[in-house]
Amino acid sequence: MKLTDVELLDELKSRFEENAYSLKHLSELNLELMSLNRKLEESEKMKSNFLSNIRNEIVNPFASILGLATHIQACGPDRMDKVRQMAAMIHSEAFSLDFQLQNIFAAAELEAGESHLSCMNVDVSALLESVIESYRFELQKRSITVDLTCSCKGMEFKTDAGKLKLIILNLLDNGIKFSPMGGSVEIVSSCSQGILEVAIRDYGIGIEEKNLAFIFDRFKRINTDVNTLNGGYGLGLTVAKAMLEALEGTIEVHSKVGEGSQFIVRIPEAKAVDEVEGFAADANEFMFDSDNEIF
Amino acid sequence: MDDIEQHYLYPSALFASARPHKVVTVLGSCVSVCLWDPFLRIGGINHYMLPLWNGEGLASPKYGNIAIEKLIERMLYLGSRKANLQAKIFGGGEVIDVNISGRFRIGERNIAIAKELLEEHRIPIVAQSVGGKRGRKLMFLTSTGEVFQKIIDKNSHEIGG
Lengths: 295, 161
What we know:
Chain A is an alpha+beta fold. Chain A is built from 9 helices and 8 strands. Chain A has a 5-stranded mixed beta sheet, covered by helices on one side. A two-stranded antiparallel ribbon of chain A has the order 1-3. By secondary structure, chain B is of the alpha+beta class. The longest helix of chain B is centred in the C-terminal third of the chain and has 15 residues, at about 105-120. In chain B, about 50% of the residues are buried. Strand 8 of chain A pairs antiparallel with strand 9 of chain B, so a sheet runs across the interface.
């Protein structure tokens, strides 16, 4: 076949373009790879920090619990007021320890792929109230108020209660943690058309826009100096998000520095158990009917 | 067969057991790798949604590179030798409108990572049903290594992953 000069030039041109395109694509991939690598290195570093922090953050609360318990034992029967006070301190230390451990185990379970859903009918407003109640001492100590507005009072919603509770615990904990003394946190919950929505708003320090992308990364603590005072491992929001994914839900964040943050979660109602389990009415049929292929 | 324990595998989870199980899962653009050890007659299966972990969120078996490594680890922990393992791979259909999801050709990339990693580990793929435009419902018998598959209609709302 003979090509004219013009055809030859066109062919050459198109091949050069193709080449340039591949090169561009390759350099883009390379950049992506480099940024990924940086991220993984960072993640590895955070993981080792985590392992060294965890010791202090678990050992210290235990030390104070043991110390307080010894004091209580030494208290005479006439010092009930003091005993009460110390019991409240023990409760608060043990509560935060329990909460941190729940997050660590939840993260470990999710990373091992061993997290299962166990759905049941949940009274959402009672669940929210019980989560708030568990923070009573902390709220009193820092004079923070939590306002709950729940338009789904007494209604039942089918979901995984344990996961929902840990999600709310983490968001509320976050809201309280970053609220100033005497501040307030608002929880608004509603449920319509099979979607549960819970919005948690605080008027605390807020999150810088550039940091919003990282708040769900594991072991990430945005403002380390503030966070050191507040404790925590940087796992809470990561766990909350992963659990929401398991529930096929979503999370949305609005935040402004100095004005506070709002987290909105939306969760669709779980399907009936037999549907979820994949053993619906047609299940046995599907296993053995003729259009079934076997590999 | 009815006395065999059943397990429903959710997206991002993985399952392996020394006891016989029927594992059921539903796949759209997600991929499941089934590993089977014909000597011990035990098996394991994962169900991942995206090919690679990008450092965001948890390093969970939601991502192929993690899900496959963890599944192999789990099989070795149960006593299998890597050289004995066989793989079957399923899923990776383009059931979600690629324009909407904004993630280009997820199914295809999910399939590719399975093939790459299994080759790297020298685990042979003895059967596969991948790609296409529809979802799949699987039942994996961990004691025989058999996988029953039913093709299901495209409906991204019903498809787990």
